[in-house]
Amino acid sequence: MSDLVTFGETMLRLSPPINERIEAATEFEVRAAGAESNVAIAAERLGATATWTSKLPNSPLGRRVNAELNQYGIDTDVIWSEEGRQGTYYLEHAGKPRGTNVIYDRADAAVTTAKPEEFDLNLLQDARVFFTSGITPALSPTLRDTTAKLLQAAQQGGTTTAFDFNYRNKLWTPEEARDTLTKLFPGIDVLVIAARDARTVLGYEGDPRQLAHKLGSQFDFTTVVVTRGDKGALAWHDNVVHDHDAYETDTVDPIGTGDAFTGAFIARRLAGNDVPRALEYAAATAALKRTIPGDIALVTKEEVEAVVSENNDEISR
């Protein structure tokens, strides 16, 4: 039995050498990449036992994804499909003014056909936390229904449900996202949302503290975490808002920072830490992730605790 079960698509990320253009590249680095598997790995690294569940094509590429996730220490519970393909995305890294460019190639991926009855609901209901994100229902009408039903099944089994709003404008419009994701809110206990998404998608106004209070009072969440990019994050819990700044970091690869934050926050709440302490661990894990190439936070609990301790020592001086 796992502490945490996550559900969603994991793609293969193909990246040309840094600053190289995709159209001119002669080689690509390949890594597994997906919000929900990233969260599972970060949580595992911070002390939770985690399982990622999804649907993959029974192909060399699908097996490549599964094998890589296994090597990072998490369990996988995969529905193997003879239809559909393995989703990929291409990531072009560059400095200003070009910046980072992401090109998705995930149409007709096997996961888009995943139905609730294909999953072992006992896996979700035996876990302490079930996690998915707003990326998953954006991928197909089938996944909108599946996401809703898995959240409901987990909650009915007594499992805490956690959800990262995770709006992606390359997948759907703000209006489509708002209509779909707010319908999922009754099945969610812990919501993680970027302040910009609360404004852009939900149409809320105010500073992050006001956004957290509004979400917490309007919907029946137990915890609302509002992220603020390089300004850190805050969490509303028991009608109290706890604030934490971001840690200073030298950025090598920002992709997956939010997943690292969420995975660490969930792991430390599972370990019994209070919300302020979980925010500390989450911020430190996010900072460390930005120093690591790829989507995955390959950190250790000791490294995270060292960042937290060093920061606390500086504050006390």
TrEMBL record:
The name this protein goes by in its record: Sugar kinase
One Pfam family here: PfkB
Keyword DNA damage in record: no
Similarity section: Belongs to the carbohydrate kinase PfkB family.
Keyword annotations: Kinase, Transferase
UniProt entry tagged with the keyword Cell wall biogenesis/degradation: no
Molecular-function annotations in GO: kinase activity
Domain Carbohydrate kinase PfkB: 1-297
Taxonomic lineage of the native organism: Archaea, Methanobacteriati, Methanobacteriota, Stenosarchaea group, Halobacteria
The species this protein was found in: Natronoglomus mannanivorans
